Amino acid sequence: MNTVSYDGSFDGLLTAVFEVYEYKIEQPFICKTNIASVSLFGKLHCVHTDETKSDRVLKKLKDKLSRNALLQLRKTFLSEIKDIENVLLRYIQYVLANKISVENNFSHPDVLMLQQTSRKVDREKHRMEAFVRFQCTKDNLYYAIIQPDYNVLPLVSKHFEDRYADQRWLIYDGIRKVGLYYDLEKVEEVFMHFETDLNNKDQLKAIYDEKEELYQSLWQQYFQSVNIKARKNTKLHIQHMPKRYWRNLVEKKVFNKQ
After folding, report:
1. How far apart are CA 136 and CA 72, in angstroms?
2. Interaxial angle between packed helices 84-97 and 10-22, expressed in degrees from 0 to 180 and rounded to the nearest 10
3. Interatomic CA distance for residues 73 and 87, integer angstroms
C-alpha cells in the first residue's frame, strides 16, 4: 500500500486522484497530511494542491455524471467519515472506467455508499438551517454556534446569505473551529477561537445587546405557550430534533432538564 497525503481540501483530493493516475501509483491510500503514515512496505507520496489538475478531474467527472451526482460527491467528501477519501477514489475510478453512466448502479458498494452518505449530510444541512438560533451582540453582530456531525458549514452559506442579507452575522462551527462571517456584502471563512459555552451568563452579559435577554425570554415564553403537555410526544420530538442540537437552542434552555 502506498500512502498519498493531501491537505484536506476538496481540490486537494481531486489533485491526489489526478496524481494517482499521473504517477501510476499502485494500491494508493489517500489520507490527510496530518495523519499520514508510511506502511512498512509502502511509500509516501505528498500531494500539493494544484487547481489545474483538480479542474481536469472535475471536467472529466462533469462529462460522466449528472449535476445531482456531482453534488453527492461533494457532500460525501464533507461527511469527513474515516477513509472516505478512498471510497471517493474508487468511485471516481469506477465512473471514469465505464463508457456508460454508472451513478445509479447501487449494486456497486461505493456507489451505494456515496448515495447513503450524501443523504446523511444533506439531512444534517437541513437541520442546521432549521435549528440555528442567532443572538445579537452589542455591536449588532448576530452570531450562532453549531456543532454538526458533518462539515455542513459550506453547504448552508447561501441559505443564510439569502435569508439574512440585511444584517451582519457569524455562524461558528464549534467542533471544527471555523466560521462563516457575512459583512453585508460577502461571506468569508474565518478561523478563530470562539467561546462555545452559551450558558455562561457572566460572559454573555458582556457581549449581549441590551435587548437580547428580553428577546430570548419572549421566545422561550412563546415556545412554552405552544407546548401542549397533553399532546407531548417525546419520542417523536427527539426524532425531529435530536438532543445533540439542544445545547445551542435558546428555547431549550428552559426545557433541557426535562
Report:
1. 35
2. 50
3. 10
Q: How many CB atoms lie within 10 A of CB 32?
A: 15
Angle between the N-to-C axes of helices 109-131 and 84-97, in degrees from 0 to 180, rounded to the nearest 10: 130
Q: How many CB atoms lie within 10 A of CB 67?
A: 8
Phi, psi angle pair for 45, to nearest 5°: -115, 115
Q: Burial level of 172, CB count in 10 A (0-12/13-18/19+)?
A: buried
What's the rounded Cα separation, in Å, for the pair 114 and 205?
Answer: 45
pTM higher than 0.85 for the full model? Answer: no
Q: Which stretches of the chain score pLDDT less than 50?
A: 198, 203-204, 206-212, 214-216, 218-223, 226, 237, 254-258
Per-domain residue ranges of the chain:
2-124, 132-255
Tell me the backbone φ, ψ of residue 191, rounded to 5 degrees: -115, 125
Bridging pattern class, strands 142-146 and 169-173: parallel
Rounded to an integer, what distance in angstroms lies between the CA atom of residue 91 and that of residue 65?
A: 11
Is 200 in a helix, a strand, or coil?
Answer: coil
d(CA 170, CA 127) in angstroms, rounded, equals 18
Task: Specify the residue for cell string 449528472.
Answer: 66
Report the C-alpha gap between 194 and 246 in whole angstroms: 19
Determine how many CB atoms are found less than 10 A away from the CB of residue 182. Answer: 20
Q: Which three cell numbers mark 52?
A: 489545474
Report in angstroms the alpha-carbon separations of 35 from 8, 51, 131: 10, 23, 33
Residue bearing cell 478512498:
86
Tallying the residues shown for the chain, one arrives at: 258
